[in-house]
Protein: Reverse transcriptase Ty1/copia-type domain-containing protein
Organism: Ganoderma sinense ZZ0214-1
Amino acid sequence: MALAALEDWHISGLDVRSAYLYGKLDEEIYLEQPEGFRIPGSEHKVFRLKRALYGLKQAGLAWWRTLSESMKLMGYKRLTNDAGLYIYKRHSDGELVVVIVYVDDALFCGRDKKLVALLKARFMKKWECRDLGDAKEFLRMRITRIGRKIFLDQRAYLEKVLDRCGMMNARPALTPLPAGYIPAPNTGQATPELRSRYQKVIGSLLYLMLGTRPDLAFAVTKLAQHAANPTEDHLSKALHICRYLVGTKNYALVYNGDSQLGLIAGTDSDWASDPYTRRSQPGFMLKLANCAFSWVSRAQKTIALSSTEAEYMAMSDCSRQVVWVHNLLAELGYHIGRVPLSGDNQGSIHIGQNPVTESRSKHIDIRYHYIREVYDRGITDIFYVEGTNNPADIFTKNLGTVKFHHFRPYLGLHFPKAA
């Protein structure tokens, strides 16, 4: 969506009817004759499947292989860095069309509206499809265009979640969770009813967070760590997140096509703030068109021995995502310079820019030194930002109202009228 806004691409959608049934099977699979389709006199025999069926574990892969082969014959190139992306370049002028495919949903994106329509029509001749016209929705995310801005939200799904949880008319909360709240592990055993209800709520919130709500990242991932054995307090706090959504259900990610900021990345990490595990919680985001399109908040797998180490590990994790995006853009034909990667710890920045071994950092796992290679290859440019001005802080802890509301717009998340 960020590229579509910046390049002013036309976006057209479709979905393939019964997509999995097109998948060709490479292996021999047999099944018993189903009720109503048994052949008289041959009831003891079995059928051999020639095509995939819904419910077959190979169905998804079979459809992807069949689609990929067909797209190649139609002149598309599948990207190495994302197997769900295909590009078509017109020989006469190099005009580009990007096709995004997720299972049976597809978006055709390009500047030339006639070329997009032509390629989409060719695709629909090959497969039985439902033409969705100008894209208004994709994977339950609503797409709205106003001028050179693209708004992305999940309001319809969000309201279903609130209704299912009985929170539609709840009193709105100003932040996802209370400032400084840290969930305590359950010392007993959750009832099956509590576990089931909690997992349903958390699963729904995770889908919202991964789609269009980076402001929920820390709160939801922190509570998700207790999904196997929750307490009533955990459930209460999950519903607190729902109360926050009641007051922000109209918010959307806003990709601004007039933005001149380019691709930027920001990281942060707390240090051992969880008194039960002492694992640090880092987070990072990548922005394009002045809006986040990739974000992460998750506990580190190893215990950091200092704040510098925790921040260094966070920057290394972020740099891996930057490399993937950098390579993806290169495949699309966009060659960019160094990506600004910010952090608020001078020590971690020094280690990342200088391949030196010191007594306080020599124990750091070699995998985290990947950031040095990325910096030396000219992919990132690491720089310092004051902690009070670091929006990635929103991914590392439950902030108070003033600070949370200060950083939220930096994610590109706005109430549409204020965007």
